[in-house]
Design goal:
Blueprint: E1 3-9, E2 26-27, E3 30-31, H1 32-41, E4 47-52, H2 56-62, E5 68-71, H3 78-89, E6 96-101, H4 109-118, E7 124-130, E8 138-143, E9 146-151, H5 158-161, E10 165-174, H6 175-182, H7 197-206, E11 209-213, H8 226-246, E12 250-251, E13 257-259, E14 264-265, E15 270-271, E16 275-278, E17 282-283, E18 288-289, E19 294-296, E20 299-300, E21 305-306, E22 310-312, E23 315-316, E24 321-322, E25 327-328, E26 333-334, E27 339-351, E28 356-368, E29 373-374, E30 379-381, E31 391-393, E32 398-399, E33 404-406, E34 409-411, E35 416-417, E36 422-423, E37 432-433, H9 445-456
Parallel strand pairs: 1-4, 1-6, 4-5, 7-11, 12-15, 13-16, 14-17, 15-18, 16-19, 17-20, 18-21, 19-22, 20-23, 21-24, 22-25, 23-26, 24-27, 25-27, 26-27, 27-28, 28-31, 29-32, 30-33, 31-34, 32-35, 33-36, 35-37
Antiparallel strand pairs: 2-3, 6-10, 7-10, 8-9, 8-10
């Protein structure tokens, strides 16, 4: 017997009020449907088909390479979606078909495994939960302990709506029983759709239906609105943070720490509050990140320190310091023990070992050697209005405060630039480059200016 899986991802999600298909919305850095596919993969299915419909091309973009897709061109309900998937799968006789919604990112693989275990000897098995507020979900109908069907909320009477046991659109079916039931369901309901829930009642009339209760009710809750999306993301973040802390990562305040699923943290890393680590970001042992950091696709090496700063596509070397209030843009490389300090912006720039850009500077398209100091207010003038140009600064260079470095430009080792200079020509090693007009002084200027002002005011 093989397990075949169907993931229902065709709905629009009208309550999201978004142009994006619902399952494409992200929680903790991943689309909702990606979380579901991970849980399904834990069953090691022989085949998985994702049913797409609204925004089909956009959904395909977030699916893993090679994912099997069946398109429901007309959304006629969940039962119809399963029919579309089965048409692509081919015969399922003798197999178990697992059906899960693509908008339930909190599923664990262990829960789906429990569903399969509870399915032994049954024609159909549904996953259920008891919740204090069942609004929006189909209610499980029982005759004593025996499951006899499911009624959708829109078709339920007041007595049925009071039932607190809900069906969460997750099932295991005997393949033959599923195909037979789908052939009998109709569209005589308020939505005019083929409900997959009706298949449970049909199977129950002549076969065996089991129910497996989810161990954690919050795990089975789907996402139909932005408030539910935020709630699901919070659960995922708690799981992620707990996993990292159990692996040896220190977090000052896990409830105010946002770590996406694709991030890697080494044991011994220290994460302070209000830190956002997203995309392909990694933090090595002994690095301290935060408070107040946003780092995307960034490498933060061992012993580095970053706080109150933003980094996108940077590589922060061992023992390097960033911030406060620094902005590292794509292509920034800070080598060992270097610094990008207060109100510093860098882009496509390498800062060499032990070199410092302490404050109030912009370094773009630049290469800075070792043990060099960039004075406050220094700017690489890298753009001429048409193209970018490179600035190369050697080792042990001292760039005076408020220096404009007009690229393309090369400054040799051990050179010095005078504060307030605009450097437009290459500077040879060991030289002092100064570009200033001669300072003039006009004695008595303040008194003359005051007399002129009084005269103009008519005094």
């Amino acid at each position: 017997m093989s397990v075949r899986a169907i993931v229902l991802a065709a709905g629009r999600g009208t309550r999201m009020k978004s142009p994006l298909p619902k399952v494409v919305h992200e929680a903790a850095g991943r689309p909702l449907v990606a979380w579901v596919l991970d849980a399904v993969a834990g069953l090691d299915p022989a085949e998985t088909v994702v049913v797409v419909g609204y925004g089909a091309d956009r959904v395909r973009e977030v699916l893993p390479p090679g994912a099997a897709v069946a398109e429901q061109t007309e959304q006629l309900g969940t039962g119809h979606a399963v029919m579309v998937a089965l048409d692509q799968m081919g015969p399922v006789s003798g197999d178990t078909v697992v059906v899960v919604p693509g908008d339930s990112p909190l599923f664990r693989a262990s829960t789906l495994a429990a569903l399969l275990e509870g399915h032994r000897g049954a024609d159909a098995t549904l996953l259920t939960a008891r919740v204090p507020d069942p609004a929006g979900y189909g209610r499980v109908l029982r005759d004593g302990d025996r499951v006899i069907g499911i009624v959708e909320e829109g078709d339920a009477d007041p007595h049925q709506r009071a039932i607190d046991e809900i069906a969460v659109s997750t099932y295991a079916f005997d393949g033959d029983a599923l195909v037979g039931a789908l052939g009998e369901i109709g569209r005589d309901n308020r939505q005019g759709e083929y409900y997959l829930t009706d298949a449970i009642g049909i199977i129950a009339a002549g076969g065996t239906v089991h129910a497996v209760a989810a161990a954690e009710p919050e795990e089975v809750l789907g996402v139909n609105s932005h408030d539910q999306l935020a709630a699901a993301a919070a659960v995922l973040r708690r799981r992620i943070n707990l996993g990292w802390m159990q692996a040896g990562v220190w977090m000052q305040d896990p409830e105010r720490t946002y770590v996406d699923a694709g991030v890697h943290l080494a044991p011994g890393a220290r994460i302070f509050a209000d830190t956002h680590l997203v995309g392909d970001t990694s933090v090595e042992e002994g690095a301290e990140v935060g408070p107040g950091v946003y780092a995307a696709d960034t490498r933060i090496r061992a012993g580095a320190r970053m706080w109150y700063s933003v980094s996108r596509g940077a590589d922060i070397g061992p023992g390097a310091q960033v911030g406060p209030y620094a902005s590292l843009r794509e292509g920034t490389v800070l080598l060992e023990r270097s610094k990008a300090g207060t109100f510093v912006e860098t882009k496509k720039t390498t800062v060499g070992k032990g070199s410092k850009v302490p404050h109030l500077s912009y370094m773009g398209d630049a290469t800075i050697g070792e043990d060099t100091n960039i004075g406050a207010g220094t700017i690489t003038c890298n753009y001429d209005g048409h193209r970018k140009h490179q600035t190369v600064i050697g080792d042990r260079v001292f760039i005076g405060s408020d220096t404009m470095l007009v690229a393309p430009l090369s400054i040799g080792d051990d050179a010095v630039t005078g504060a307030g200079s605009t450097i437009t020509k290459d500077v040879e090693p060991g030289a002092l480059a100064v570009e200033r007009s001669t300072q003039k002084q006009l004695p008595g200027y303040a008194a003359r200016r005051a007399r002129k002002s009084r005269h103009e005011d008519g005094e």
